[in-house]
Structure formats: C-alpha cells, structure tokens
Amino acid sequence: MSAQHLGHQHNHTHGMAKQTLRFAFFLTIIILVAELVGGLIGNSLALLSDAGHVVTDIFALGLAWFATVQAERPANAHKTFGYHRVGILVALVNAVTLILIAFAITWEAVQRFQHPQPVQPLVMFLSAGIGIAINLFIGFGLQREGHSLNVRAATLHVFSDVAASVGVIIAGILILLTGWTLADPLLSVGIAVLIAIGAWLIIRETTDILMEAVPRDISLSALVNDMKGVRGVQDVHDLHVWSIASGMYALSCHTLIDDLPPSGSSPILQSLTTLLNEKYHIGHATIQFECKNQQGACCEMVGLYCRLEAVKEKCNGHHPTYEISPLSKQNR
Description:
By secondary structure, the protein is an alpha+beta fold. The strands form two sheets. Strands 1-2-3 form a three-stranded mixed beta sheet. Strands 4-5-6 form a three-stranded antiparallel beta sheet.
C-alpha cells in the first residue's frame, strides 16, 4: 500500500469522525439540559451525577473534535509526522477528567449515605430515558469511526454516560417499589467505578504511546523471527517499534544480510517492508543493512565502494587496518 493511499485513507477516516463528533457535540448539550432539569426537580443525585458527567462529555467531544481537525493538518519541516499526537494528548486529558468525575461522584454519594434525601423516581425515569436514547445514537455513531484512541476515549465518555443513565433508572425502580432511597447513591458509586476502570485503560494506552512503548498487539520475538525468515536476512538487532498515534506504527532496526552490493539488497528490503506492512501494520519502517562480513561498513559513497576489514585477533595493540578497493585507489 503506497504512502499516498495511506494518507488518503487517514484523511477520509478523520473527515468522517469529524462530522460525527460535531453532530454528537450538539446533541449532548440537549442531554445536559434534560438531566439538569430532571435532577433538580427530582432531587436525584444519580441524575445530577450523570449531568455532571455529561458536562465532561461535552468537553471531551469538543476536544476530540478539535484533535480530529488538527490531525488533518499536513506534516511540515518542524513536525514531520504531522499532528497525530494531538489526539493522544486529548485522549489523556479526557481520561484524567473521567477519573476526577468518578472521585467527585463517589464523594457526593458518601454524603448522601450519611444524609439520605427523598427523590422523585418518575422524573428520574423521564430524564434518564432521554439521555439513554440520544447517547446510544451518538455512541454507536462514534463506534463506527472509533479507530483512533482520541475517538475511542470520546466514545467511552458517551457509553459510560449510558451506563450512568441505566443506573439512574434502576435506582428509580428500586425507590419506587421499596422506598429505599439509598439505592440512588449506591448505584452512583457503581457508576463511578465503571467510569474509573474505562478511564484507566485509556490512560494506560496513551502513556504507552507517549513513552513509545512497543504496541500491545505486536510481539517483538515473533517479529524478529519473521524478519529473519526473509531470504538473505541473517539477524536483526537494535530493533525499536513504537506508535506515532493509535494504530500508526513505526519501526527502526539494523539488519544483518548476506554479502551483497547495495543494488542487490533491494529485493530483501522490499520483502521486509511488505512483511511489516501486511502482517504487523507498520507503515513507517527504517531498516539499516549491515553486510555479514563487514558489519557496520558496507557502504557506497561518491562512487567509491569501501570495505572495512574486521580487526584480527585483538590487533596486538596496533590500529585496525582498512582495505581500500582498487576503484578508490584510482581516485586517490
């Protein structure tokens, strides 16, 4: 797959995600109004907690929308990989805000345990039902575009809000049937735990990318074995694999190959890049070849082919010897 095609595919994906995020942003404002009104009228902590989470949804969707727009900006001489990591930073911010919201919900729930308050379950049903309907519509729309970590973080915000609204309805049913008002803060704590778990998974993945860790779906040992299975490859070392953005992988390595002139190594390079692209989805690979018997010095510069001979038996304190080809002697 050519770089041009890959670029077109990324731009098309970002374009679809941008439209979905913009639509979701404005729909979520409607949910916020419905849940704030319902929570204040019904005196429901679960509903007000959900409304507080919706505020972070609006913030998250706005940031995700901004990050998607930024990711479409072309690379330049200063940012040669473009602006793809804006989405990673936004995903990290969104996940951290979710953790804070989870703590805030838990704290308020503890206060409600100590000082129970009456709630109006019918108002809870109506407001939560509106939130569920709109959020499911938004969530499944985002899920179809959820290839990037940025969009996935925004989707987690939306689906955790669905879970919160379901919790509100369950609490309302329990209160309506049993009069047990503690069901409201109890389910709020459960919602907070689910939000925190999902946010932690996003934080872990974003920090892996920012720390340039090996992607979790790539095994280095299997990768090395596959590369050594390519005809002409003897060994692979100084191997580094990392993510530029979510699902956008890069690799650099030194590869020991059979003694070949530079032009003879082209088929090996083609086989390696095809393997990395098709099996491991690594679209950015930098491979430095080293010849089997002249590691680190098989090169062609200014028309001269230089050969650096290995040091023989410790050299007995003498300097290493360099053998210069006849071609280079003629040019001296």
